[in-house]
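Practice record 12: protein with magnesium ion.
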Amino acid sequence: MEATLVVQKYGGTSVADVAKIKNVAKRVLEAKKKIDHVVVVVSALGDTTDQLAGLACQITKSPPEREMDMLLSTGEQVSMALLAMALKEMGQEAVSMTGQQVEILTDTGHTRAKIRHVGARRVIQELRKGKVVVVAGFQGVSSEGEITTLGRGGSDTTAVALAAALHADYCEICTDVEGVFTADPRIAPDAHKIDRISFEEMLEMAATGAKVLQSRSVEYARNYNVPLYVRSSFNEAPGTWVKSEGEIMERPIISAVTHDFSEAKVTVIGVPDKPGAAADLFGSLADANVNIDMIIQNVSDHARTDISFTVSKEDLQKVKEVSEKLVGSIGADGISYDDKIARITLVGAGMRTHPGIAAGMFKTLADNKINIEMISTSPIKISCVVGMEDGETAVRELHKYFNL
Ligand code: ASP
Ligand code: MG
């Protein structure tokens, strides 16, 4: 694709050590031969972010979020400086910049800040001088002048936000896989790379467990119509384009089956069936900054009802604290938790116009004696929560049944 400005993002595994950083520098040089302006966004080296978080946990059970951001944001600064040095060593003028220098302005939500505005004035100045600009991913600066981070995997969002601000031709996400797959190949051996997929489908995939892109980055890309090209950092194989639906001609009914083993199910039992109970419960969880995923309220029996929802296992402790306090005040009978669940999701824009997809999914699960605990749908996806032990079979069998 002809281009004048491209933002490339390299993830942690692509810059895990010095040899890999040099490899990235070579790839950037190759890109620079064909493209006038190249901006590179980097993640922290390998598992640095996990290691830093681990250090914090050795000190306190609940690290202050501001300090956590100060700590985690250092990871990306190491990789940006090393990559800029590697580029210079190869004869390419380059300059590294932090989120603050790039003017990635965010709200004050430490550890999961949202981008409000990207200035990029200095990036443009440096590009005009012929330099490659290397930007620290995952970090920004809040309206109060504090360093913030954008949530795990946030370098993708940095890259997309910069691509939007700079009106880049596209944003290339260079990673340790060759693109977006129809399922996780480690679970479904027949899984294969998808050539093109729409923002909407990718968004559903990211939200339901596909790890290749951070959800928020896809949302951002859709909102600003930034085409994404997901490809490997280690070879030249063609990757996956993520674009607006209008630009995708041929498309299958079902694009992919995703899985997520990282959630837990919470059930509030015997909630009085009167206005306000759900508002109280979810209001308090929202105040505690807990993201709720699926929600199901059962048909009420004897003026009481059960409300089940799923949350990330990481948030389970917070959920316990908040909801156990609330049980009394909303007059519910109790709470139960289940962290041995798997959420399996079929994603496909073709579902909108093809009946019978849900029926096919339920039948496949039934034929494999897999019990469904929760169901939720959107116009282009169907998710079922099943027992964790059935998760992999469900993925494999659905991939087979829908001929992906
Ligand atoms: N280093 C951060 C993380 O591991 C951000 C990123 O990799 O995108 O979550
Ligand atoms: Mg990472």
